[in-house]
Design brief:
Nucleotidyltransferase, domain 5; 5-stranded mixed β-sheet; binds 5'-O-[(R)-(carboxyoxy)(hydroxy)phosphoryl]adenosine; binds zinc ion
C-alpha cells in the first residue's frame, strides 16, 4: 500500500512515498535554513512563502523518484499540526486540492505522531508498548505508546523545548542557526565538566524545564565574556524554531537582547560552554527517560525529533541500552529531523483504522498528541 506523505509544519517542505508504513520509496526535503539564517531563527511569513514556491516541485519530485502515478496511491497523509499556522496551511491546502483533483482519500497526521512513527521506518521496529522520547525544536515530551493512537503523555517541557534551548544558546554565542548541529559539533572539542550548569530534574515529575539552563548560560557568558545587552530590532525573528506558533512572538526572550557574537570569549571557552551546556541537556533527558522506563516497567525506548540527531545523546542512550538491556530504537539522523516519510508512516496506520479526513480539514497550530 503506497502513501504520499506531506509535511510543511515548520521550515522544511517535504514529501515522501512510503510503502505499508515501513518502507521508504522516496523522501524529498527542501530546507529553508539559508533563508532564515540571517535572522537567527525562523521568520514565519518567509517560511510560508517558501513553502508555496516549493510544495509542487517537492511533491512532483517525490512522485517521480518513486516512479508511480497518483492512481497508485492509497491515500495522501498530510501533517495538520502542531506547527506554524501559515506553514501548515500550505501543506494542508495542497494536499486537499490534490485529493480532490485526483479523487484520493485524505488522512490528517499529528506531527508528533509522525515523529513517533519514524522508528518504524528502520529495519528493526519496536513492539508495543514502548516509551517515546520526542525531542525537537518545538517539543520535548515523554509518552507511553500502547498501540497506534494509544498515547499517554508522561511528561513535557514546562518552558523551552530542548532544541529551542540549543538554538537560543547558539544564537547568544554567535554561532548561528540552527543551533543544534553547531553546538553538537563545537562540543566535541570542549570539556563537558568545565562549567557546572544547572540541571532541572524536577523531582517526582517527568516534566522538563530548559529555560533556567539557558539563563545560566547567558549569565555565564555575560560575566566571563563581557557581552553587553542590546535589543535586537524585530524581536519576532529572534526566537528559535517557532514550532509553538504564536508563542514565538514573545519578543524572543533573553536571546533577543543579546548582542550577536561572543564578546571576548576565546574559541576554547566557547567550545567548553557548548560541551557543558550539552552535558546538562543530555543528563536531564537521560535521567527522565530512565525514570519513565522504571515507572512504567517498559524496557523499550524510541528516540525521535531533531535533537535525537545529537551525537552525545545517541552515544549515551546507546550506552544505557547496553548496560541495562533496554531495547533502543533510534532512527537514522535524517529521519530524526522533520521529514514527510514519518507522516506517511503514521498515515498508514490511520488509513488502515479508517480515520479519513474531510476536504474541509483545517490546520491547527496547537494540536495535542
Ligand atoms: O524535529 P525538528 O526537525 O523540527 C521540529 O519539529 O521542531 O527539530 C529541529 C530542532 C532544532 O532546534 C535543531 O537545532 C535541533 O532540532 N537539532 C539538534 C541537532 N540537529 C538538529 N539539536 C542537537 N543536536 C543536533 N545534532
Ligand atoms: Zn518535528
Amino acid at each position: 500500500m503506497l502513501i504520499l506523505g506531506i509535511d510543511t509544519s515548520c521550515d522544511d517542505t517535504s514529501a515522501a512515498v512510503v510503502e505499508s508504513g515501513t518502507k521508504i520509496v522516496s523522501n524529498v526535503i527542501s530546507n529553508q535554513t539559508e533563508i532564515h539564517r540571517r535572522y537567527g531563527g525562523i521568520v514565519p511569513e518567509l517560511a510560508s512563502r517558501r513553502h508555496v514556491e516549493m510544495i509542487w516541485p517537492v511533491v512532483d519530485e517525490a512522485m517521480k523518484e518513486a516512479g508511480i502515478g497518483y492512481g497508485e496511491l492509497a491515500c495522501i497523509a498530510v501533517c495538520h499540526g502542531p506547527g506554524l499556522i501559515g506553514s501548515l496551511l500550505v501543506g494542508c491546502s495542497f494536499a486537499k486540492a490534490l485529493c480532490y483533483a485526483k479523487k484520493i482519500p485524505l488522512v490528517a497526521v499529528n506531527h508528533l505522531e509522525g515523529h513517533i512513527y519514524s522508528s518504524f521506518l528502520e529495519e528493526k521496529k519496536p513492539d508495543y508498548p514502548f516509551i517515546a522520547l520526542i525531542v525537537s525544536g518545538g517539543h520535548t515530551c515523554l509518552c507511553r505508546v500502547d498501540g497506534f493512537g494509544r498515547y499517554r503523555e508522561l511528561g513535557r517541557t514546562r518552558d523551552d523545548a530542548a532544541g529551542e534551548a540549543y538554538d537560543k544558546v547558539s544564537k547568544l554565542l554567535g554561532l548561528g542557526y540552527p543551533g543544534g548541529p553547531v553546538i553538537d559539533d563545537r562540543a566535541r572539542t570542549g570539556d563537558p565538566r568545565s562549567i557546572d550548569f544547572p540541571r532541572a530534574y524536577l523531582p517526582d515529575s517527568l516534566d522538563f524545564s530548559f529555560s533556567g539552563l539557558k539563563t545560566a548560560v547567558l549569565q555565564y557568558v555575560k560575566t566571563v565574556g563581557g557581552i553587553e545587552e542590546k535589543e535586537l530590532p524585530g524581536g519576532f525573528a529572534s526566537s528559535s524554531s517557532g514550532r509553538r506558533g504564536a508563542e514565538r512572538f514573545k519578543g524572543g526572550g533573553i536571546a533577543a537582547k543579546i548582542h550577536r557574537g561572543s564578546g571576548s570569549l576565546t574559541p576554547e571557552q566557547i567550545s567548553d560552554i557548548c560541551a557543558s551546556f550539552q552535558a546538562a541537556v543530555v543528563d536531564v533527558l537521560m535521567k527522565k527517560t530512565e525514570w519513565a522506563v522504571r515507572n512504567e516497567g517498559i524496557q523499550r525506548v524510541t528516540l525521535s525529533g531533531g535533537v535525537a540527531a545529537n551525537s552525545e545523546l545517541r552515544k549515551r542512550m546507546g550506552e544505557m541500552a547496553e548496560e541495562t538491556g533496554i531495547e533502543l530504537f533510534m532512527p537514522s539522523r535524517s529521519l530524526c529531523t522533520d521529514n514527510a516519510a514519518m507522516i506517511a508512516a503514521a498515515g498508514y496506520h490511520r488509513f488502515k483504522a479508517g480515520h479519513l479526513a474531510s476536504l474541509g480539514l483545517n490546520p491547527v497550530a496547537y494540536l495535542p498528541l
